[in-house]
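Allow me, if you will, to draw on your knowledge of protein folds for a short while. I am sending you one protein, given as its amino acid sequence and as whole-number tokens for its backbone shapes. Kindly check, if you would, that the fold set down in the tokens agrees with what the sequence suggests. The record follows directly beneath this note:
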Amino acid sequence: MRTALFALTAGGVQLAVRLADAVDGSTVIHIPERLRGNISEGYETVYFLRLADVMKTAFTRYDALVCIMATGIVVRMIAPYADSKLYDPAVLVFDEQGKHGISLLSGHIGGANELTRRLCAAVGADPVITTATDVTGVLAPDSIAAQLALRPVPKSGIQVINTALVEGRTASYFIDSDLPHAAFYEAHLRAEEIQPRLFCGVLPPVGEDEYHVIITRAEAVPEMSAMPPRTLYLTPRRLIAGVGCRAGVPEAKILRALTQACSMIGRSPSFIDAFASTEVKRDEAGLLAAVRTLGREIQFFPNEALAHMIDQYGLTESDFVRQTIGVGNVSEAAALCAAGKEGGRMALGKTGFGKVTVALLWEK
């Protein structure tokens, strides 16, 4: 997860540093130019003159925004850009003294509720979470979708199911037995004390007072005109692996790096749907062999495309890589290129494993 932290005062900067230390993934702290010198050089920092300018850029650049300031300021800043719970970043608000942390936007799918709980625990703050299902202690299907990197379809079904759960009704979960990793999803649901039913082929019709949540392949979801009532589908998001490597790295080392990277997000390399890298590596034997072994395809992108993503998302660059191939970030930039215009959420920012660098991204 790529996280942007914002502070407006010297006290806020101190809290931003504490929160940055508790965040998994890459962080960038944004503070006013007048506070230059209030933060250690060990933190990636952006200095700004106008909060509105950096907030606009950050809204589409990061997976999460953590704002240490008045809630009203944050609401006014993000209001023009909030679009959909399926795509908006997680937005959190903390008071300067770190007494309260508020999950403000994208609580379930964007992960704001979970991030709020985690950061509040790290700094001793009181988490403020107002989504109805969380308040009533009900596990919402879109929260499960966030945990398992599943895409809810249709969007309107989220509210239908969640409203029913808040009102005390129950939802039945079904898992397509032909779905790759069906056992993984089943185990996760059972760990949450949900008893899903496996199915193969046609599902039973939805009864008059029944609510169904169905985990299946995207191509198995019916058209809107044929969508059954009171039903929410959850379909796996593509996991894209961006890979950079030194020349001549053997297949075994690349496979080992991929295994380690995937284990860091609780998956195995079999979950990877596609690979991406720089066109400089188009003939890299070890990389091509690893992709073949996993039965996937790889896309190679030119420096111009990678540079565009580096600029658009403010990706951190390596001087060594830039001097070697012409751009300073391969793994993250290539993964974002492969995700296309919808973009994605970083499951694992660029991470080095010896001579191999891997970034993992869930396609939005």
In short: The first strand starts at residue 3 and ends at 7. The two ends are 13 Å apart (CA to CA).
